[in-house]
Amino acid sequence: MALLACASPPRPVTLGPATASEETVITETLARALQSDPTTQPADDLFSPHAVVIADGEMRRIAPRFAGVSMGGQVAIGTTQFEVRNGIAFGSADYRWLSIKGSMAREGWATFVLAPSDGKWLILQAHSSTIKGER
Questions:
Q1: Greatest Cα-to-Cα distance within the chain, rounded to the nearest angstrom
Q2: pTM (2 decimals)?
Q3: Which segments of the chain have a pLDDT < 50?
Q4: What pLDDT is attached to residue 5?
C-alpha cells in the first residue's frame, strides 16, 4: 500500500497533429475507402488483412463496407478529422451516399483506426453508422 501512495499519477495522453505527408496519405486513404465503397473499384489494399469493419452493428468483409452505402451511386465526404499518436491514426468522417437512380440519400458517420505499413496507411478498424430509419 505504501508503494501505491508514492506512485506518480499517470500522465495524460496528448494527441498530436499529423505531419503534412501523413495528413495527405491518411486523408486520401479515408477518401478512397469511402468513395470506392458503392463501386466495383477494389479497395482491399486500403485495409489490413485482419481489419475489423462494422456497419450499423454488423461485420462487413466486402463492399459495401460502410453503413448506409449501397452498390451504385456516389459517396460525398463532408468533414474528416484525425490525430496521430504513437504511430497510430485515429479519425472520423461524415459522409452521404447518393443513389444514381431515384432520389435516395443516406447520411453516415465513421470512425477509423489506421497504422502505417510498407509506406502507406492501412485501415485496422472502421465503425460506421447511419441515422435510425435510414438503413
A1: 70
A2: 0.82
A3: 1-15
A4: 46
Judge if the upstream peptide bond of residue 42 is cis by omega within 30 degrees of 0: no
Identify any residues that bridge with 53 across adjacent strands, giving them in sequence order: 126
**CA 93 – CA 66 distance, rounded (Å):** 11
Q: Grid coordinates standing for 95? A: 459522409
Q: Among all chains, which residue has been given the C-alpha cell 505531419?
A: 19
Cα separations (Å) of 133 from 36, 46, 86?
A: 24, 29, 38
Count Cβ atoms within 10 A of the Cβ of residue 128 and give its class: 0-12 exposed, 13-18 middle, 19 or more buried: buried
pLDDT at 7 (0 to 100): 47
Q: How far apart, in whole angstroms, are the C-alpha atoms of residue 67 and residue 48?
A: 19
Q: Which three cell numbers stand for residue 3?
A: 508503494
